[in-house]
Amino acid sequence: MKVLVTGGAGYLGSITAKALEQAGHTPVILDSLLVGPRQYAAGRIFYEGDIADRELLQRIVAEHPDLHATIHMAARIVVPESVEQPYGYYRDNVTKSLEMFDELTALGKPRIIFSSTASLYALKPDFEVSEGDPVEPTSPYARTKRMMEMVLEDLARASDLRAVILRYFNPIGADPDLASGYHLRDATHVVPLMAQTALGFRDTFTITGTDHPTRDGTGIRDYIHVWDLARAHVRAVEEFDSVLSKVGEPYTYINLGGGDGVTVRELLAAVERVVGKPVPVTEAPPRPGDAAGAFANADKAAELLNWRTELTLDEAIASALAWGEKRKAVLGYE
């Protein structure tokens, strides 16, 4: 099957494209390259442009009339930046996505697999969240994702559009062959920062927030290997119609996580275990928009997608570290 992957030149998009290829499918990449490096689209069908460009979407569908579904990953995703630049986040994540959904539906390509986030869940005392639990997004970034979830619900009820909404927890690591990985020059995600510190590219790792209501005061997350996340998208493409038939609705939500919680201090200990040496640490207050965190109840993904994580936390960390050593050779910068 052919699958349109928006944001397919990004970190998650490029690895998902590879997983699709290994499963015998053909990714068609649409990316503005605002963030994703051009190298990540090399060797694949690639269109450089904006997701809201209706004429471009028309051309893509005309040239690939056999597109089966769209995996919509293109988005701005940095929480502190969303607090500082909310307009850009609502414009790019909400307004442009709405235009794309409308055009794809008009073109007869109504299957949407949407990249959402677990960061919109309301805080629970035990931190384990299921798809039906209350949401309370704490940043403009998370609110844009919740807005698009509601948009997809409404469009699915009123039109031919159909949606499988995947709520990501915290993907880490790199492509199994180290062909791609986390690529931002100024890392904002915790494991790349830890990896760069462990490799000596940074002087210290800063723990932001040490008085959360968790077992050690630091934020709690559900970390999964990015390759497991990519595999879940392959399952969502292959089982799309079956999933919605089983739930009896034109849309559904599915958590993608490992099903257990790891605090920042526990993650740091795991990085030190994999590296074999201590990582220098400083402490700071939480960043704007930060939440205490959550981990997934992933039973629905197992039931509907026949998917569970297969790779361990240590394997994911080792993958991130290996990518940290190689990424200069791939991208030209550390």
Task: List its salient traits.
334 residues, alpha/beta, UDP-galactose 4-epimerase, domain 1, two-stranded parallel sheet, 15 strands, 19% strand
Structure write-up:
With 334 residues, the protein is α/β, with parallel strands linked by helices. The chain is built from eleven helices and 15 strands. A seven-stranded parallel β-sheet has the order 3-2-1-4-5-7-12, sandwiched between helices. The longest helix has 21 residues. The two termini are 36 Å apart.
Question: What is the structure about, briefly put?
Answer:
This protein has 11 helices and 15 strands.
Strand and helix layout:
Blueprint: E1 2-6, H1 11-22, E2 26-31, E3 45-48, H2 54-63, E4 67-72, H3 79-84, H4 86-106, E5 111-117, E6 128-129, H5 140-158, E7 162-168, E8 170-172, H6 190-198, E9 205-208, E10 220-221, E11 223-225, H7 226-238, H8 240-247, E12 251-256, E13 262-263, H9 264-275, E14 281-284, E15 295-296, H10 299-305, H11 313-331
Parallel strand pairs: 1-2, 1-4, 2-3, 4-5, 5-7, 6-15, 7-12, 8-11, 9-14
Antiparallel strand pairs: 10-13
Helix pairs in contact: 1-7, 4-5, 6-9, 6-11, 9-11
